Amino acid sequence: MMDRLRKLLCAFLLLVFVLPLAGCWDRRELQERNLVLAIALDLADEGLKPGQSQETVKAETFVQPTGSKRYRLSLQILKYEAKGAGSKGGGGQGARKTFVLSNTGESLFEMVRDMLGQSSRALYFEHMQVVIISEAVLRQTNLAPILDFFFRDAEMRSRIRVYATPGQARPLLEFKPPTGEPGGIYLNNIARNHVKNAHIGTARTDLGHIIQALDNDADVIMPRIDIQDEVVKIRGLAVFRRDRFGGYLDEYAVQGIRFVRGTERGAIITAPCPVHPGEILALELVKHETKLTPHVAGDDIYFTLDINMTGNLSEVHGAQPNTYDYKNKDALEQAFAQEVLANVSYAVRQSQTVGCDTLYFGSKLKAHEPETWKRVKERWDEIYPAISLYTSVNVRIRNIGVHR
Amino acid sequence: MVTMRYKGWHRRIVAAGLLLLFSLPVSGCWDRQELQDRAMLLAIAIDAADDKTAAEQSRTAVEKFPQPHGAKRYRVSNQVLKLGASEEEEESRTFVLSNTGQSILEMGRDVSGQISKVLWLEDLHVIIVSEEAVKIAGLQPIIDFFRRDQRIRWRSRLYITPGKARELLEFKPESGEPGGMFLEAISRNHPKNTHVIAARTDLGFIVQALDNEADVLVPRIEMQQKVVRVGGAAAFKRGKFAGYLDEYAVKGLKFIRATEKSAIIAVRCPLHPEGLLVFELFEHETRLRPIVKGEQVFFQLDINMTGNIGEISCSRHHCSLDPEYRRKAELLFAEEVRRNVLYAQEACQELGIDVLNFGFKLKAYQPKTWAKIKDRWDEIYPTVPMTVSVNVHIRNVGEHK
Asked: Which among A177, A271, B100, B184 could disulfide-bond with A335, CB atoms 3.0 to 4.6 Å apart, if both were Cys?
């Protein structure tokens, strides 16, 4: 009797153990998902497809009880079945790897859900790479309302890139990268080169950092991206006062800001040659220490910035470039230091003109001089543009490359 | 000795016979038709025969046959899967064949004169009927073939389009899927897209409704400038086209029928009228009851909803965790749902289509009243009032306050 019971139990257990082997009951295969790689936000009457007119985009929208047709939201979706550049022998001759869907409305969430009416598969945002917002949208509204959907939704990652573009955002989603990568991944990866390209202000500007800045009532900065005739480039920054769009800073200002914030690892600094007038020298930065300190003297608030740089002489222009001729290395170092100084003051001046605290003066003051901060924080917007920065730069040339 | 030898011989014959017999099934199916010898129909489009442009005239001169009975009423287009089509960007994975006539079956057979393979209907995904075609004689004559033929699956999807149905078959999906499969799959997203009425509206359900002489909704599909979108519904009163319901009415209807799994409900923010406050619905209970008081029939709808705040597009200084703010938001969402549901009811009653199932509910719960009024139901239905009570509960606010 016991024996039979044991056998029955065994058989039963075996059956139970088999159950989990059947796999996930509500699985959704990879190829049954539409992965959204990039989102573009334009005003509703912008971002039309080539040949589309306002009257003919009715198919892309829905009857909306609340709110207006304010924005056009475009999603870039990964195509699974597209044959890439690889199968065609490289060179990006293969089929486009993404396609774009659009919709108009006011709530981003509502537009996204209505777009399921144009898609044969469910939309997945877990692999989203980039959000691109057109300048026209930024001029019309604050940043927080349009990013709220991305803050709140659990599918959105904090490491998503957010870009501002002076033109329309949708053409960037339709851009076909020459490398054969899917568009959104390409656009995101450009930002990763910021370490060695001091003109790209993408350090600490992804979605997570923007949320942080907004939560702390700090000013937001965001890389600017441009497209013109099939050329895409990240250049400069879009700057905000809190979350209100304030304008752009150019690449030179970005480089200066990065010298202050110390977020670059290898910058190229060019300076006029002290020996051969009219020619230039280039320094490749390899080490960089920065210290920004607030000082309070009575009612006067000022900052000091100490920069220590070590680098290699990486390019010399001139009739007969022979580095040994430069007997006086000090003069060269001086020239580079002068240049860094000029660059930093340019960046500070530009930032103060647009009123965006790109250099973290406010948070430095709060941390180091909390009493003073309490006194001035209400008037910070007025005080900030007038704050002086005293910079001292020390540059050391360590090496001259593999050729004299 | 002789008998023994005879016996061995006999056994050998049997063995040889059996061997021959066993080898028969090994040769495979005698009347097999290889996959690549079949022309799989993925989608069928039905237009009105005269609904075509002059440029198409010359084409359609070939795409027809002399017809002893009936008129050249419909133009039926068949989307056929190209087997072995490469997935290159330029090439479509399907092609379209058309024919004109009246009997759908007759046209289907005559279209074989345009193709080298046998037409195969078992994998039919979509039937698209144009508004023009359905206005000629209603849905019934068009759909009869599909409900009678045993090759047609009941889970095939039926759409109505205000434009030309054939153009939808020629649409090449950007995702690279064959057109018919793409068009059918759009509807599968309906649990999360309240603008698509795809629950209980496939061929089987529509046939059921027509058999019960019930009113029916068919999802509406539209193509404009290479954008295909499903949204809204075409309404049929006992098989006759009555008009369209817009996305907002469809959403309200889905709240009443509770056929959605998630919905997005947007209202104006109570503190900042320039911003929107958006609710994401997760759980939803609905109860529709008929109540009879004397001569008066009315319906009571109770809706209980639970969900999250999905988006706040106004000031970031909102504290969405504030209980008072939340309470206010819940009331606003409830009011919006009420408005939506009443909008849907009004739209249905205006068209005179009982897709809210008022009639069935009354028949089930108040059979005596139903027996009294069923002959006058068409007159009574547009005036039946519905009282709505909505309760919304906000459970969570998402990843960020």
From this structure: A271
